[in-house]
Write a structure and sequence with these properties.
Aspartate Aminotransferase, domain 1; Aspartate Aminotransferase, domain 2; 2 domains; 5-stranded antiparallel sheet; 14 helices; globular; binds pyridoxal-5'-phosphate
Length: 397
């Protein structure tokens, strides 16, 4: 067998994918691990894409996206955030993943350090390593409401630190950063001359609080705010998202797209345009379902005395499973009780002992899944339950 890049081969596979692969094709499994809406893409978006294909949108587009799509993004940023963004600051990408990975690659030299959240979405680690950078995890502590602590971040900045990655609303925690924190984080990266990659792909899935995009405060093009059609419009398979960044960063990201993907698929770009410019009541309806699922899940967990964090945004509940090894716990839950969920350790060392339940499933699946989880937690000895300090940081039990 020929030798392959050790940079790539040593990147760990996502633990969420591992569970998904094990659960795939099994009809008897309650699926609470998935991080994608189970809704179909709204029909007006599908129709617009079909029309676009018939009208000849079957070719390469400019690397940074079709002009009309970049304009639709600007109009959306004005409508939803009151921001005046020029199309030159928009890069249409292959999902949020495409935006984050290009921005990281454009920002770092080999050996530079990237600060990523712990717990945090596992792909940040993978993308930083593949970009030749050194990922360094900053803690999100329950006692601090799982929000980044600026003093702690400051203590981690060294001569090789180039990028701070933040994620609000958060996967897996469901936190929504207060606007003052978002502003403070932009100040922080300015002070330390870093680039802020602000992953905001769940920006439209908010139950409480206000989401303020980091590009609101960007003084000099050092913020890359990342958005996606995937979660907002149930479009995970269309692979389309976008970033708002400084013009030079957008030029470099577009050049990288030439190298790796050329451009986001033209029909998907036209679907994104229709999604952004069209009626938004489909988003509200989907959010309402997630909110009902959140309320149901948190109620069921509370009734069983299982500590968890009630999310203000995104569609996950972070649960203290009281297990020593969450990967083993999740595998056993799947094989013995037929329930798939994400092991906390895949989100970083601070996720050990936790699991993540997704809120996209039907209420009945949630009921069944939480009952099985509760039985497994009881079997694991249920530490956390009856702890004298309860579950700090906004957790409930
Ligand atoms: N960021 C976070 C926090 C996510 O959870 C995901 C997907 O699960 C993404 C980015 C990327 O989504 P996509 O590439 O489908 O837009």
């Amino acid at each position: 067998m020929p030798r392959l890049s050790s940079t790539v081969t040593r990147v760990p596979q996502s633990g969420i994918r591992r569970i998904m692969n094990l659960a795939a094709g099994r009809q008897d499994v309650v699926r609470l691990e998935v991080g994608e809406p189970l809704f179909s893409t709204p029909s007006h978006i599908v129709e617009a894409a079909v029309r676009a294909v018939r009208d000849g949108y079957t070719r390469y587009t400019p690397n940074a996206g079709l002009p009309s799509v970049r304009e639709a993004v600007c109009a959306r940023m004005h409508r939803d955030y009151g921001l005046e963004i020029r199309p030159e600051r928009v890069c249409v990408t292959v999902g949020g993943v495409g935006a984050i990975s290009s921005a990281l690659r454009a920002a770092v030299e080999a050996g530079d350090e990237v600060l990523i959240p712990d717990p945090g979405w596992p792909n940040y680690y993978m993308m930083a390593v593949v970009a030749g950078a050194v990922p360094r995890r900053y803690p999100l502590r329950p006692e601090n409401g799982y929000l980044p602590d600026l003093d702690e971040l400051r203590s981690m900045v060294g001569p090789r630190t180039r990028v701070l990655v933040v994620n609000s609303p958060s996967n897996p925690l469901g936190t929504v950063f207060p606007p003052t924190l978002v502003e403070a984080l932009v100040d922080f990266v300015s002070t330390h001359d870093l680039i802020l990659i602000s992953d905001e792909v769940y920006d439209c899935i908010i139950y409480e609080g206000t989401h303020r995009t980091a590009c609101t405060y960007d003084p000099d093009g050092r913020v890359v705010a990342v958005f996606s059609a995937s979660k907002t419009y149930a479009m995970t398979g269309w692979r389309v998202g976008y970033a708002i960044a400084g013009e030079e960063m957008v030029r470099q990201m577009a050049k990288l797209q030439e190298a790796y993907v050329s451009c986001a698929p033209a029909p998907s770009q036209k679907a994104l345009e229709a999604a952004l410019a069209g009626p938004q009541d489909c988003v509200e309806a989907m959010c309402l379902t997630y909110r009902e699922n959140r309320d149901l899940t948190c109620r069921l967990l509370a009734e069983r005395g299982i500590p968890h964090r009630r999310p203000e945004g995104a569609f996950y509940v972070w649960i203290e499973a009281g297990c020593r090894n969450s990967t083993e716990f999740a595998h056993r839950l799947l094989t013995e009780r037929g329930v798939a969920l994400a092991p906390g350790s895949t989100f970083g060392p601070r996720g050990e002992g936790y699991v993540r339940v997704s809120l996209v499933s039907a209420a009945e699946a949630i009921r069944e899944g939480v009952a099985a989880l509760a039985a497994a937690v009881a079997g694991a000895g249920a530490p956390g339950r009856g702890r004298p300090d309860g579950c700090p940081g906004g957790c409930e039990a």
